[in-house]
Amino acid sequence: MIELDLLGAHAPRAYSILSSLVTPRPIAWVTTLNEDGSVNAAPFSFFNVFGAEPPLVIFAPGDRDDGSPKDSARNCRRTGEFVVNLVDAALAEVMVKTSASVPYGVSETAREDLETAASSAVLVPRIAAAPAALECRVHSIQQIGENRIVLGIVHRVHVREEFFESETMRVLGEKFHPIGRMASPNWYCKTSDLFEIARPS
Ligand SMILES: Cc1cc2nc3c(=O)[nH]c(=O)nc-3n(C[C@H](O)[C@H](O)[C@H](O)COP(=O)(O)O)c2cc1C
Q1: Would the pTM of this model clear 0.85, i.e. be above it?
Q2: What is the pLDDT of residues 70-93, one digit of tens each?
Q3: Among candidate residues 22, 182, 199, 183, the one with its CA nearest the CA of residue 191
Q4: 62 pocket-lining for ligand 1 (C-beta < 6 Å)
Q5: Distance CA 137, CA 34 (A)
Q6: Three-state SS for 38?
């Protein structure tokens, strides 16, 4: 085995090593509101759900090289709201386009001609073409080094009908296939190759 010291000699490679090993990661395509009311959209794969009572999500925008927060973090702090839009293969290319660095206030949804839909519990709209979306309010934001850890509570979930069975209140895992992020910087995976293992009772 090769041993690496991410706080020492190998610190400059920490991002690349960790983000290529801890895979696949889900992708939060986060919408937030800019100061002028336009919609900011950006993907984050330092993201997951972390509990159900309360329903908790976390995503982590790293700071820019000059130490300033990314627009998503800045908007979350100001408005206290965000929406996590989930991403399937059909949306992969446009999702990546919205990761371009653009000046604050430039709306990626307008730039990429992405239709939005009104949310119920928050003012931030969701991306209409996303197969699912989580309306969130910010619980807290922690700053650890260059990372801003945005903790959010999920207030509403939207799932496209074809992926949800209302009688059993079950997401149809055999149909819902979000993409995952693989090795840094440009690799992704599909999630349609499933297998099942029953848990011991
Ligand atoms: C699939 C994908 C995942 C990403 N994940 C993260 C992440 O977890 N943290 C981060 O700081 N940047 C991440 N980025 C880069 C941001 O999307 C990019 O810096 C973006 O410009 C931030 O936008 P904002 O300033 O509007 O928030 C990711 C990019 C891609 C394509």
Answers
A1: yes
A2: 999 999 999 999 999 999 999 999
A3: 182
A4: yes
A5: 16
A6: coil
Query: Ligand 1 centre and the CA of 44: distance in Å?
Result: 5
| pLDDT per position as a tens digit, 185-197 | 999 999 999 999 9
Domain boundaries in the chain?
23-189
Specify which residues 130 forms β-bridges with: none
- Residue 175 tokens read as 């149909």
Q: Is the CB of 189 under 6 A from ligand 1?
A: no
Of all atoms in ligand 1, which is nearest to the CA of residue 30?
Answer: 27
Round to whole Å and give the CA distance between 120 and 143: 29
Ligand 1 in reach of 158 Cβ (< 6 A): no
Ligand 1, atom 7: closest residue by C-alpha: 44
Half-sphere exposure of 111 (CA within 13 A, CB side): 19
Does the CB atom of residue 101 touch ligand 1 within 6 A? Answer: yes
Q: Work out the burial of residue 73: count CB atoms within 10 Å of its CB; fewer than 13 is exposed, 13-18 middle, 19 or more buried.
A: buried
Task: Determine the residue type at 92.
Answer: A
Q: Rounded to the nearest 5 degrees, what angle is found at the Cα of 44, between the Cα atoms of 170 and 76?
A: 95
- The CATH class, in words, for 23-189 is mainly beta
With tokens 């991410």, the residue in question is: 6
| Ligand 1 pocket member 133 (CB < 6 A) | no
Q: Quick check: CB of 178 below 6 Å from ligand 1?
A: no
